[in-house]
Amino acid sequence: MVTDRHTAKELAIFNRFAVASGLAIVQDSVEKRPPPEPDILCNVVGLGDVAFELVELIDEDLAGRSFGQLRLKSMFEESFETCAPSIKAALLSTIGNALVHVTFANVGLRQRQSSVVDVFNFLRTIDSDCEGTLTPESLASTVESIRVARLDIVGPCFDVDAVGCFGDPTLGSIQGKWSKRYETPHRRELLAYYELQPELPNELWRPTLESFLQQHWSSSPFQRLWVYDCATRRIVYTAERPQ
After folding, report:
1. Using an 8 Å Cβ cutoff, are 206 and 237 in contact?
2. How does pLDDT run across 154-178, given as a tens digit for each residue?
3. What is the residue-wise DSSP string for 142-200?
4. Could you tell me which residue, 212 or 58, shows the higher pLDDT?
5. Cα separation of 105 and 1, whole Å?
6. Other C-beta atoms within 10 Å of 235: how many?
7. Nearest-angstrom CA–CA distance, 35 and 218
8. pLDDT, tens only, 51-105
9. pLDDT category, 6, cuts 50, 70, 90?
10. Which residue from 38, 56, 14 is spatially nearest to 222, judged by alpha carbons?
11. Is the pLDDT of residue 1 over 50?
12. Which of 50, 83, 84 lies closest to 185 in space, CA to CA?
C-alpha cells in the first residue's frame, strides 16, 4: 500500500480514469514519476510508454478562500489524532482508507467547528465500503452532505467546503500546464480532473477551452487532453493535437 497520501491520491484517480478512458493500459505498468517528468508513466497498448501530467480543476478561491476553512480542516485532522483510542479505532475501521469531504449548511464558523464531534459520531456508523455522497438527517442543521471517496491511502484524510461561490478553473489550470516543460522521451498527455469542485456546465468552460486549443495546440507539450469527473467516473471531454 502506498503511504504517501498525495501520491496515493494521484494513483487512485489515474487508475479510475484509466477504466473510464478505455485505454488498454498494461497491468502493473502505472508508476508515479518525479519532476521534471510528468506525474505518471504507464504503458498503453498501441502507443507504448505514455507520460501523463495531472492537474485538478478547482477554483483557487474555493481551495483556500478563508482562514476559517483552513482552520476547520485542521480541526478535523487534530480531533482525529487526539480522540480517545476506542473512537479512533472505530473511525479507522470505517474511514481508514477514505477522503472525507464535508459540505456545511449555511451556518457560522462556530457552529461548523462544534459539529466536528457529531460528524465523527456519524462516520463511526457507516459501513467500511460505503462510498459516495451522504446526507445524514441527524446533522441536517449544520451539515449539508458528507462525501466519502475510497482511495489506496493510509487515512483518513479530511477536507471541507469553502464559503461562497466558485468560478471556472478549467482554462487557467490547463494553461498553467501548457507553459511547463517536461523531461521525458515519451508521448505526453494531460489529465485534468474534477474532484472536490463539481463539474461545471459545458457552456461555462468548453467554448473557451476549445478556442484556446485551436489557437495554441501547436505550442502544446501534450499530444492529448482529457477532462475527467471523479464523482461520476466519466470522461467529460477529450481532444487530440492535430497532426
Report:
1. yes
2. 889 998 875 544 557 888 899 999 9
3. TEEEEEEEE-SSSS-EEEEPPSS-----HHHHHHHHHT-----SSEEEEEEEESSSPPP
4. 212
5. 35
6. 15
7. 23
8. 999 999 877 655 445 456 777 888 899 999 999 999 999 999 999 999 999 998 8
9. confident
10. 38
11. no
12. 50
Instruction: Write the burial class of residue 176 (CB in 10 Å: 0-12 exposed, 13-18 middle, 19+ buried).
Output: exposed
Per the listing, cell 502493473 goes with 28
Q: Which of 57, 70, 231, 78 is nearest to 162 (CA)?
A: 70
C-alpha cell at 177: 500546464
> Global pTM?
0.60
Helical H segments across the chain, by residue range: 5-21, 60-64, 67-82, 85-95, 109-114, 116-123, 170-178, 202-216
Q: At what angle do helices 116-123 and 85-95 cross, to 10 degrees?
A: 60
Cα 217-169-102 angle, rounded to 5 deg: 145
Give the C-alpha separation, 30 to 38, whole Å: 12
Radius of gyration of the chain from its Cα atoms, rounded to whole angstroms: 19
Q: Whole-angstrom Cα distance, residue 201 to residue 10?
A: 24
What is the distance between the terminal CA atoms of the chain, rounded to a whole angstrom? 40
